[in-house]
Amino acid sequence: MGSIQDKPNHQEVDNPIMSRSHFNFLNVIGRGGFGRVWKVELKKGKKVYAMKEMLKLRVVSKRSVSSVMNERRLLSMIKHPFMVNMQYAFQDRDNLYLAMDLMTGGDLRYHLGRNKRFNEEQTRFFVACIITGLEYLHINGIIHRDIKPENLVFDHKGYLRITDFGISKVITPENYRDTSGTPGYMAPEVMCRQNHGIAADYFAVGVIAYEFMTGRRPYLGRNRKEIKEQILAKQVQLKKSDVPAGWSMEAADFINKLLQRKSQNRLGNNGPSEVKNHAWLRDFQWKKLLEKSLEAPYVPPKEDNFDSRVCSDFKDEIDPSLAQESIQGLFVGYQFDSNMHNSKEDEVTLQIKNYAKGNKRLSS
């Protein structure tokens, strides 16, 4: 596994490398927070990608400029077979465009909705995919902070990849003010505005595995306040009587250890190897997984792995006081071309490199 530290430095190209005209926009395959997601074809070479089209006025109205810029910066520094990797980024007057690997299998939420639950073999495989992606991020000092079924997508072989890095962060000692995430998957220390690290991502993995086993999340509520109250009131713990037929007690122990409310007691707090060495995963064929030579226990259908209802038009309001001309300076530097791997020594890059220099666990 390569590390971010090993990647060469290049100069940022100030002028746009790509534009909308370089692509054929084929059909809408989803909807993000700021616009549609398209299946597109690069006219030269005919390669197909997923393209996020984000309306700048909507990004600004939702106060999400830092989030979309942060995602582009982080994506320029990471590349891994268990991530949805960025290939191009560019903009025009109205929109930001982010061309990513096309994952034809759809997201895990869609398939969980169709299947209601997954069995233990499928869950172990899914968890192994997520852990492999998180290992790369965590070794390089990055917390994802929004691991959930919507942000885990299938490739055509049935392997899961991690996507959506809008609220991901380079690890810093003081980050208690950063409370972004999704209630239900958010770790207690994040929800309670405490400093947090990689253990926050492993809590979310525990929630997902619990959901697969039982068909529901461990802490339920109509909003963040109610979920927080549930977490503070009781430590969820799977008992033998809770374990469905066909599931092992090792699986329940794995989930229980990920769902520990105190991060210092949580499996993964001491690093990804701690998670991989748990009895439930210890004999997993990690090398074959990384090579993608294992046969996945669940392979999505070849077509229509998304809910067409989510592709409808947006109806939210955009701040009428905003003018296109006044917001253009907020998105300077959005360009990226993976073929040239342009990334300047910005703050995020330097933070990652500084973390890598002091982290003796970095892979070569």
UniProtKB/TrEMBL annotation:
Residues 282-346 form the AGC-kinase C-terminal domain. Its EC number is 2.7.11.1. ATP binds at K52. GO terms for biological process: intracellular signal transduction. Keywords: ATP-binding, Kinase, Nucleotide-binding, Serine/threonine-protein kinase, Transferase. Residues 23-281 form the Protein kinase domain. It catalyses: L-threonyl-[protein] + ATP = O-phospho-L-threonyl-[protein] + ADP + H(+); L-seryl-[protein] + ATP = O-phospho-L-seryl-[protein] + ADP + H(+). One of its GO terms (molecular function) is protein serine/threonine kinase activity. It is an enzyme of class 2 (transferase). PANTHER family: PROTEIN KINASE DOMAIN-CONTAINING PROTEIN, SERINE/THREONINE-PROTEIN KINASE. Belongs to the protein kinase superfamily. This is non-specific serine/threonine protein kinase.
